Amino acid sequence: MSYDYLIVGAGLFGSTFAFEAAKRGKTVKVIDKRNHVAGNIYTEKIEGINVHKYGAHIFHTNDKEIWDYVNQFVEFNRYTNSPIANYNGEIYNMPFNMNTFNKLWGVVKPDEAKEKINDQKAAFGIDKPKNLEEQAISLVGTDIYQKLVKGYTEKQWGRKATELPAFIIKRLPVRFTYDNNYFNDRYQGIPIGGYTQIVEKMLNSDLIDVELEKDFFENKDEYLKDAKKIVYTGMIDQFFDYQYGALEYRSLQFENSVLDLDNYQGNAVVNYTDAETPYTRIIEHKHFEFGNQSKTIITKEYPRTWEIGNEPYYPMNDKQNNEVFNKYHELAKRTPNVIFGGRLGMYKYYDMHQVIGAAISVVNQEFKSN
Ligand code: FAD
Which of 343, 360, 361, 363 gets mutated to test ligand 1 (max ligand atoms within 8 A of its CB)? Predict the structure, then answer.
């Protein structure tokens, strides 16, 4: 037993834990099956542009402690997420706000927009929304639903909106101001120079060894035998050999292109909200950092059905999957010396600030007597 902790997964959860453990004088070994650290927040520099390899990542939080915490590793720029929607060539601002309503209906004042939405809701006559379609219409009316929600959501989840549970869009961001900032949080930005350096700095300690391209399951028994304690951030169902069945995810496929032009779409994120375009969005990475390189790199994001072996991106937290997860979670609680964490270990969609917060609470629990 040469290390105090073996950490499975060099993503944000595992790396935050590793950093905090090393700070307390513990020895740590971090393994990851990928050939790089940083998990899904990994950015790679191509043509001088930091490319978000696993989808667009915008850091945002309301929590000053988390903001200060992450700022010890990196400086953030002033990027404000203001995605736009492209519906068959018509461009709308997001989140749905007075700019969107003005373009849709010509309304200028918030009361006029509210009246329009309320009229559409009333005409549809929904009392208690039973599915995503009814939920969306009860939040934003039929026009916005048809042009900006339906196609995008159906592509994203691979199911009809009438077959999706209402809870998925409990909080559609609607604003009766001319504010195109997608997030309400006080702090947001993109790390100047990309995300990978956050994790590299977290893992930069004499007490931390990192081994890449090491899959925990190729040596599970050895690792369990050798490590005093394990922090496991892989898939919880896989850890328990899928004994209650596989938890379901939505997957994504990313198609990157380097283009010989300096500005492809004028914005970092453009959502394609019609049903016909097969991808959900195009990311143009240089705009996250206000880049002025002569080339540009774009990524088309295609939603995909997930099966074992594919990259799991979004947990399908419906009733059935949550019940299966709860069974695994009970097993996890009874598994000595293994801490389960992160988005795959907890089968939960975490934003980055939430995953750092979750790791810090596990750290506080683990080292409370130190
Ligand atoms: P991960 O980053 O997935 O790290 C887990 C690591 O464990 C991986 O590196 C994996 O290779 C490794 N691993 C798994 N199994 C094994 C094994 N058997 N052996 C060895 N290693 C293993 N958050 C935001 O705040 N803002 C955003 O804009 C945002 N956008 C997102 C967009 C997309 C498309 C996605 C999918 C997520 C987004 N997120 C965003 C969420 C963000 O990616 C997560 O909060 C964060 O990456 C979770 O970190 P983690 O350590 O839990 O998981």
Answer: 343
